Amino acid sequence: MTTQTKPRVAFFDFACCEGCQLEVLSLEEQLLDMVELVDIVTWREAMSEKSDDYDIAFCEGSITREADIERIKHIRETADILVSLGACATIGCHNALKNQFSMDEVLYIVYGDRAEWFDTIPARPISAVVPVDYQVNGCPASLPEFLTVFKHILMGKEYKPPNQPVCVECKLKDNLCVYDKGLLCLGPVTRCGCDAICTSYGHTCFGCRGLVDEPNLNAAQDVLAKYGLSVEEIVGKFRVYNNWPELSLEESQSDG
Amino acid sequence: MSICVIEHDELCALVERLIRQWPVMGPRQRKQQPGFYYFDWLRSADELVWDYVTTTLPPKKAFFPPREPFLEFSRPDPAKVRPITDQGPFVLLGVHPCDLAAIEQLDIAYSDNAADGRYLANRARTTAIIGVDCWPDEYCFCTSVGTEQARGPADLFLTPIGRGYLVEVRTPRGQKLLGDTAQLLATDEDEADAAYFRSEKQRRITAQLETTVEQFADILAEGGLTEVWQKVADRCYSCGSCNLVCPTCFCFDINDDINLDLTTGTRIRTWDSCQLPDFALVAGGYNFRRERWERVRHRWHRKFLYLYTQYGQPFCTGCGRCSRACTADINLVEVSNDLIAYAQREKRNV
Amino acid sequence: MADRLNINIEHLTRVEGHGNIVVNIAEGRLEEARFEIVEAPRFFEAILRGRDYEEVVHIAARVCGICSISHSCAALKATEAAFGVELSEQTLLLRRLAYNGEIIGSHVLHVYFLAAPDFFELPSIFPMIDIDKDAVLRAMRLKKLAYDLCKAVVGRHTHPVAMTVGGFSFVQDERELAQIRTRLLDAIEDTKETVRLFKELTVPQFERETEYVSLKHPDRYALYDGEIYSSEGETVEADQYQEVIEEYVVRHSTAKHARWHRPEYMVGALARINNNFEQLHPLAKEAAAELGLTAPCFNPFMNTIAQIVEIAHCVEDSMALIDAILQRGVQEEPLQVTPQAGRGVGAIEAPRGILFHDYEYNEAGKCVSANLVIPTAQNLANLDADMRQMVPQIATQTKDQITRQLEMLVRAYDPCISCATHRLTVKLS
Amino acid sequence: MSESDPQLSASANVETYQPTIAHITRADELTSTEMLLELQLDDGQVLGHAAGQFVQVSVFGVGEAPISVCSSPTQTGSFELCVRAAGNVTNALHRLEVGDWVGIRGPYGHGFPVEEMVRKDILIVAGGIGLPPLRPLINLVLENREQYGRLIIVYGARLPKELLFKDELDSWADRGDVELYVIVEQPDDDWPGPVGVVTVPLRDIDIEPAQTVVAAAVGPPVMYRFVAFELLGKNIAAENIYFSLERRMKCGVGKCGHCQLNNLYVCVDGPVFCYSDLQGLDEAVEAWAPPTAEAGGERQEPGKGHG
Ligand SMILES: Cc1cc2nc3c(=O)[nH]c(=O)nc-3n(C[C@H](O)[C@H](O)[C@H](O)COP(=O)(O)OP(=O)(O)OC[C@H]3O[C@@H](n4cnc5c(N)ncnc54)[C@H](O)[C@@H]3O)c2cc1C
Ligand code: SF4
Ligand code: SF4
Ligand code: SF4
To answer: Measured between alpha carbons, how far apart are the two ends of chain A, in Å?
Structure first.
């Protein structure tokens, strides 16, 4: 990327709560610093201008409709760098919970006899449709990581999401482990980078940043079973966020 | 050096005085979780808890912080790289024998060879250390590694007795620290009280390694324990908690954090763990300890074999933190005893 | 009226979510004027079934990123009602405080970032940096304050982390709260500046009397709790919402609309102020007077102004709440929750209006059924009615002018579409 | 009362991790992935390295990477680094130009036992990026050619265009006193030489085992095993074989723990190790086993997400 002209940045959203964009908007002064470095040319939630000429696209949300597939492909073709922003875009998040049912069934539950008016396909992260260059995990996308990725892009650096579990950050912050309170925590198999925010506030980790590269789900089952949970319930816990790819949980369970 | 007695109120006044003079770190109780403690900077003497069992992180965080920015840089020419040294001296209170032993071990490891100047400078800021004898729980096994009476770098060491604390004044600095604090002469009764406390403490330590540390090192050096390692690895999350809470672990990572101006930033050192999958991963994708069981083995080897051979003492002080912290319930003593039993069994079979 | 006019604004900008404005005038007759929602549906009711109550609360927050504290609180209230959990005084005070934080944050976002550029005829807040940098910095300061207030109480503004069924998972730091108190005091000047800024701006003149629905509380300006109240003069218990609020299908839109006494009603800041004006704090009343907002006010464009008044109210209210909390001292409170079978409704005033979460649990605390009624959905009928009345009045203006005013009208409602699409969507013909 | 511990502070060289600034005086592209940087320390000091030692190079804001010094220890005004673009730091080094600066710490580690090599035949085995750490040794021997016996250099690369220091290779070949074998795995049409991996020419070289000292550095870890196998097969004693190894490294001074293999630290005990010291160490020799399919030497591409 040349420094003469500022890189052009666009924000897009697919099915999601738009909390990630909102987090970016809440960067305050840092947002002004960002605007010094790049030109934001498209951001529907924040501005009326639109441009189909951009270098870097931040995309939040899951792909849940046929039309989304076309749209994300177009964005991919236009942008040099595509960043998936937040859990919906990186791992499917709650959107993909519906994938456990048939699409007809979920449509019927929510829309009843009007179901046929709607187009919905199993929800998937952006990387399941087009290649993604950078990802920011979290629900909402973690701001420190967003800034790190932003700086990596501008410096032409690769960014590898940390392949360490949340426990690491939890320990670095000298938190009390929530297991010591008799609560369950998905931290040991969840990719860190959130600065262990939930556990730092005494809550459990729900796994919003996705699983680490090689989670020991075997150990997870063992430990969770100690809390009297059945295998389905354990899988259910993982599935609050981790639903894509469909079979990854079962597969990794069987190879332990 | 000398021994005296100090009463509760006097001790409290001493702590207040120290807090006025220096930043003071000591054990505190967790807000929402009674019975759980952590080391933190104290605002007043009543936050300090002397009779605690253990803390989540060891007191090394006072001079070896989990995340320590140590260099400031500015990229454009003329280049500027400046060490970050804006901290002053501090005092560390309420350190148990196992943690005193651990500080001593870190001092040795970090002074060895090319000394780690950063660490030593931080340790040099440690104005004083006051140790205190402890209240063990079922995870403690210091008697197996010989640290139950360690005093290490303590300037003062306190043992609880009926009328307060028996104070071992171990350094001239400790003497100065007491200053005009009222000190009573230790009577025979005080000494007997302290001896009783010690024996009572020993009695309460039930976890135990089934061999001496020498023999354990031999067993590990002998090898052939893969089966046990793999069994442990089956349950291990590789989350690194065991290393990160260990008072003697000292591995770290170094990373740069650049500011949004893309020209200035800091270089940061962060505690690391050899159990994390990417610890020995190099560019090109080679991972020199790729298998989980290899990492598990490395942890034991490093503590009880390599560093033991290098420095003549195991780098484990029996504090039990790793076993308490393990979310998969892997217990260092149990696994060690499994290894010992397995090795003995194998030997018999040969 | 123009003979022929077709306005089709796709993916309206500076609103939360995806929506289109469609207006058709043919042969001098208004054929269509409606706001369509084209956001992808997210099926919350379907995915909540069978979930553990803690997960329900966690997932429910994700209905919307702007008002996740509202959704969390509504879900918590519904769950607590189902389980018969009594909340401590401290928990209530703290929740109300976090709640104020969200209202301030959301309103500042809307007033400055989404609506203000219209008044300055700018495409976004970014070019305002060159025109009125103070205003931009003020907006950021206020938002940061709201953000930090939420952080101090619930850990995070977007998708709070520290609220659990029955209370909080951590003990708030009193010193942090005291610092926020100081910053709130300083923020009074910023709210006054905000009032001064908007006083100078011209709000489009348009009036249409309608029904205003909000919560009402005997002791205070209702935000976190109260009964359902209609400006037609009826009050009902929150858990009776289904008895009175009728969701219905209309021909021209596939989104469900809602009615009570009239074919449409309005919720949100203007409805709250119309219904509860007297309970506003003095600073807010002062702001209202200066901005020329008196209750009842029938101009929907004034909703943005009503939000400014509520910012002032919440700033003052937060200070009072922090005082009350600090006076009591933040106590450690054990959490005790035993799930039981039952149904519970949580009604709350989200920034955009009254919000209902309604859950049924089995005895294991697993969700059996869920229903969410979202403020933006309740406003849709009213918004369409406004458009139908307004378009003929401005039909002689240029298409650009009409478009701009329609956009402003929709934005004035501060629609939150990702909320609405937990179930609504529109089939584009 | 003293505010700090005199004992501890006496030994405290506060900034073990503070680099010295060095400016780039030459930057040559050797191949599409390797770059040769010539550097001068700003403080005018001589780096003072031994053959086989490495430095920690900083590109601030990106990070630090260990790189072998590849110029002769007798060259004192400046020193050279040969950098393969492998990741963030090395890529950032590639983007630097003459006049830019980097941070340098070191030199660190143990180099080759140059004294022991005197009067011996010297066999150098280099594979790919293994040549740069061996280059100072080669230069040293060439500069004092009369002190040593035969100098045999076996150098292998994947492709002809990946060969490093081509001019030097030519000049070595032109000297009568260097036996040079260059081999590539995948020849192009112009490649006149032999085809295969480094162990191929090794097989056919006649050497006097008792008289020979071997210095080897061979890129990918799996190659070490094959080279060791060949050398032992030629009856060279393990005590006379020296390998330069690579591991992950952060501190360079035996503290950070990353480069540990069994009880050895690559940064202080190596990077040059005597093979006899490595034998029996499962984290050295065993780790050289070719990665099997399911052990998957391959990792995910960075930034591409998982799943
Ligand atoms: C003693 C020694 C000498 C070396 N000499 C040379 C040389 O002369 N020329 C050359 O091109 N390369 C050399 N390397 C390899 C070089 O250090 C790595 O390629 C480099 O560290 C990769 O860093 P990166 O940031 O570019 O890659 P990334 O993949 O982004 O690396 C991330 C981190 O991984 C670590 N890391 C990754 N690979 C290695 C590795 N192989 N060794 C040590 N740490 C690693 C580093 O700490 C780095 O910060 C040497 C390595 C060692 C240990
Ligand atoms: S609280 Fe969760 S993330 Fe933290 S250490 Fe415990 S298990 Fe790991
Ligand atoms: S602690 Fe877990 S749930 Fe919370 S932000 Fe981090 S990864 Fe997500
Ligand atoms: S290995 Fe475990 S028991 Fe030993 S010192 Fe470390 S944390 Fe304590």
So the answer is: 43
User: CA–CA separation, C131 vs C109, rounded Å?
Assistant: 19
Beta bridge partners of D184: D157, D195
Angle among Cα C105, C106, C109 to the nearest 5 degrees reads: 85
Strand partners, C244: none
Delimiting residues of CATH 3.40.50.80 domain(s) in chain D: 114-287
pLDDT per residue as tens digits for the range B212-248: 999 999 999 988 898 999 999 999 999 999 999 999 9
- The answer to whether residue D58 scores a pLDDT higher than 50 is yes
ipTM here: 0.88
Token code pair at residue D73: 């220890």
**CA–CA dist D294, B126 (Å, integer):** 50
Give the chains touching C; criterion: ≥3 Cβ pairs < 8 Å.
A, B
CA distance A30 to chain B (A): 8
The CATH number for D6-108, chosen from 2.40.30.10, 2.60.120.10, 3.40.50.880, 2.40.110.10, is 2.40.30.10
Furthest CA-CA distance within chain C: 70
Q: Does residue C170 belong to the interface with chain B, where contact is any CB pair within 8 Å? A: yes
pLDDT in tens, A188-198: 989 999 999 99
Distance A171 CA to ligand 4 centre (A): 15
Do A170 and A150 belong to one domain? no
Measured CA to CA, the distance from residue C345 to residue C80 in angstroms comes to: 9
Going by C-alpha positions, the residue among B243, B73, B264, B78 that lies closest to residue D15 is: B73
CA atoms within 13 A on the CB side of B57: 24
Nearest-10 Cα torsion for C144, C149, C152, C154: -110
Q: Which of A59, A81, A85 is nearest to A72 (CA)?
A: A59
| Domain region containing A224 | 166-239
Query: Helix crossing, C133-154 with C174-199: angle to 10°?
Result: 150
Q: How far is CA B325 from CA B67, B148, B318, D18, in A?
A: 20, 21, 14, 35
Q: Which of A121-125, A143-147, B193-197, C45-49 is the least confident region?
A: C45-49
The token pair at D215 is 């210095």
Q: How does pLDDT run across B130-171, given as a tens digit for each residue?
A: 999 998 999 999 999 999 999 989 999 999 998 899 999 999
Q: Shortest CA distance to C73 belongs to which of C316, C350, C320, C318? A: C350
- Which DSSP symbol is given to A252? H
The pLDDT value given to residue C389: 87
Amino acid occupying residue D131: L
User: Which chain A residues have a beta carbon less than 8 Å from that of C49?
Assistant: 109
| Residue written as token pair 């100098």 | D151
Going from the Cα of A185 to the center of ligand 2, the distance in angstroms, rounded, reads 6
pLDDT on residue D296: 36
pLDDT digits (tens, 9 = 90+) for C7-31: 777 666 666 666 778 888 777 777 7
CATH of domain D114-287: 3.40.50.80
Band (pLDDT 50/70/90 cuts) for residue C427 is very low
Three-state DSSP at B100 gives helix
pLDDT higher than 60, residue C254: no
**Coil, helix or strand at residue C353:** strand
Q: What pLDDT shows up at residue C12?
A: 67
Count of CA atoms in the C-beta half-sphere (13 A) of B137: 13
The verdict on residue A244 lying in a domain is no
Asked whether residue A146 falls in the same domain as residue A170, the answer is no
- Average pLDDT of the residues in A152-165: 92
The confidence score (pLDDT) of residue C270 equals 95
Which amino acid residue places its CA nearest to atom 8 of ligand 3?
A208
Q: Are strands B156-161 and A81-85 parallel, antiparallel or unpaired?
A: unpaired
* Whether pLDDT at B350 is above 90: no
Contact list, B231 vs chain A (CB under 8 Å): none
Q: Judged by CB atoms within 8 Å, which residues 174-193 of D form the interface with B?
A: none
